[in-house]
Amino acid sequence: MLPPELLAQLVPTAADPRPVLLALAGPTAVGKTALSVALAQQFGTEILSADSRQFFRELSIGTAKPTPDEMQGVPHHFIDSHSITQEYSAGRFAADALAALEGLFQRLPVVILTGGSGLYLQAVTDGLDDLPAVDPSVRQQLQQELQTQGLPALVAELAATDPVAHGRIDRQNHQRVLRALEITRGTGQPFSSYHTGPEAAAVAAAARPFRVVKVALSRPREELYQRINQRVETMLAAGLLAEVEGLVPFRRHQALQTVGYQEIFGYLAGEYDYAEAVRLLQRNTRHYAKRQLTWLRRDPNYVWVEL
Q1: Least confident of 27-36, 198-207, 257-266
Q2: Do 50 and 79 meet the contact criterion of CB atoms below 8 Å apart?
Q3: Looking at the structure, do residues 228 and 93 belong to the same domain, yes or no?
Q4: How far is CA 111 from the centre of its chain?
Q5: Number of domains composing the chain
Q6: 304 - beta bridge partners?
Q7: Any residues with CB less than 8 A from the CB of 120 and at least 6 apart, and which?
Q8: Are the CB atoms for 47 and 20 separated by under 8 Å?
Q9: How far apart are CA 294 and CA 168, in angstroms?
Q10: Is the distance from CB of 39 to CB of 2 less than 8 angstroms?
Q11: Which domain holds residue 237?
Q12: pLDDT band with cut points at 50, 70 and 90 for residue 175
């Protein structure tokens, strides 16, 4: 549970009667689901998922989507809300989530927003940078280069043209890399130059009709890594291989260019054996957790709680 002083911040006050959105973040396998459900039960409220893959009905095991038993009767929004055949962005999610919050806050003084996708959390709590329009041909060219040259070549270009963005974004997420290069090539200005920074984010957050309390969860590194390794074993035992086999026709979809699916696609394609697939899955998930922590530490408004 959260410390008493943090729990007290979740209650609207006479000085600030606005409803409260608790943004509960943290790396994969840290324990966000269990804590968010416990808090929702304590406050009699509901949960919005900000996980960029749990939206999709076809992705369950590989996304560690909470089961009905884990939800314990707490209403969850934006889980199984879309099909893998639909494209869904952080901007669209923010618009949908803000609309949902408008309704929820009419009857609830506090709502929980939780997930491991930092960009999707930020989209709701602070808004997103207003990026310029770019000729679609730039994106098409980048996608062709991704297919012919591979992601490392594009990451190298990003490092040369925009070292700030190179150090900030998830360089294993090809969509993030393509987007940064698309803006840089299309405008002639570094992608990072369009980042509004914490001051503008603070202004945007203050304009929200609710108050945001940001909490980031952590655990000692070895304990977190053990939990990640165990989660991988649990996913495989639950039928991850069969789930991924059914998703082969959609393997180029953005949501499947991620940890938990790419490693199994490689195994199914005969690129390595089962033991290597497990090793890669555990290793890459640990690396992903490190990137999640790096992202969250960029935001000074998060209060860190070690579980």
Answers
A1: 198-207
A2: no
A3: no
A4: 18
A5: 3
A6: 216
A7: 50, 51, 52, 90, 93, 94
A8: no
A9: 9
A10: yes
A11: 222-289
A12: confident
